[in-house]
Amino acid sequence: MSDPVLETRGLSKRFGALEASKSVSLTLCPGEIHALIGPNGAGKSTLIAQIAGALKPDNGSVHLCGEDITHLSTPARARAGLARTFQVSQLAMQDTVLQNALLGATATNGRPFRLWGRPVDTLRQRAQAALTRVGLAGQAATPVSALSHGQRRLLELAIALTLEPKAFLLDEPMAGLGSEGSQNMTDFLATLRTQAPILLVEHDMDAVFALADRISVLVYGEVIATGTTDEIRANPVVREAYLGQ
Ligand code: ADP
Ligand code: MG
């Protein structure tokens, strides 16, 4: 297998007595969608936060394209090529769609990205191209508050796209979407993967089985299985612990 784009090695995190991550090691390889599934409270968002840099692990490391990025801040990781979306939307509701796409604020704990000396025109073109990709070019001047929930989720992906990332970290992109919205998002993620591999936290198992090349199952902070969709579907431990069969 080719070298992973993203790798965690032994990530561990405690909240008091609770072990939210227990030595989690996983890889995200070029071109793949690796889904992370598990019951509520399993530690999926905690893991994404440690990869993105919002939460410091007690132990372990994060590697992007072979480089240890564990010491880097969230904005530095974003600049290095990690694009994250959140389980709960972090958009600036009163600002327009284009303003949100331009700021790309989500990966920086609410603080806007500096423009890193890039000409604003280039960023604007990039933001507009990203809006076109997600089908929101016609809403560029619309305030986010006027968008549907599904459109907001797509806008978050446009913001991630403006980073031209090396890897996407998506925390429940289907959350709150109806069946049409979920299908729309599934179709979009199938095209997004050609841009960069995706670590996908998702509860919608139809979407997971449709999209994922590999699935890891997290239970009580621990990866209890990693495999292809067929392997995970057939795994008796997974069926009992998570799929409830
Ligand atoms: P998931 O995303 O899989 O539903 P989370 O990563 O959000 O799970 O949470 C994992 C566990 O860690 C939960 O029991 C949650 O209550 C706990 N937890 C998450 N963040 C914190 C925090 N900042 N402080 C204390 N406990 C937390
Ligand atoms: Mg979560």
UniProtKB/TrEMBL annotation:
Chain ranges of the ABC transporter domain: 6-245
Keyword terms, alphabetized: ATP-binding, Nucleotide-binding, Transport
GO CC annotation terms, alphabetical: plasma membrane
GO molecular function, one term: ATP binding
Gene3D superfamilies: P-loop containing nucleotide triphosphate hydrolases
Superkingdom assignment: Bacteria
Protein name: ATP-binding cassette domain-containing protein
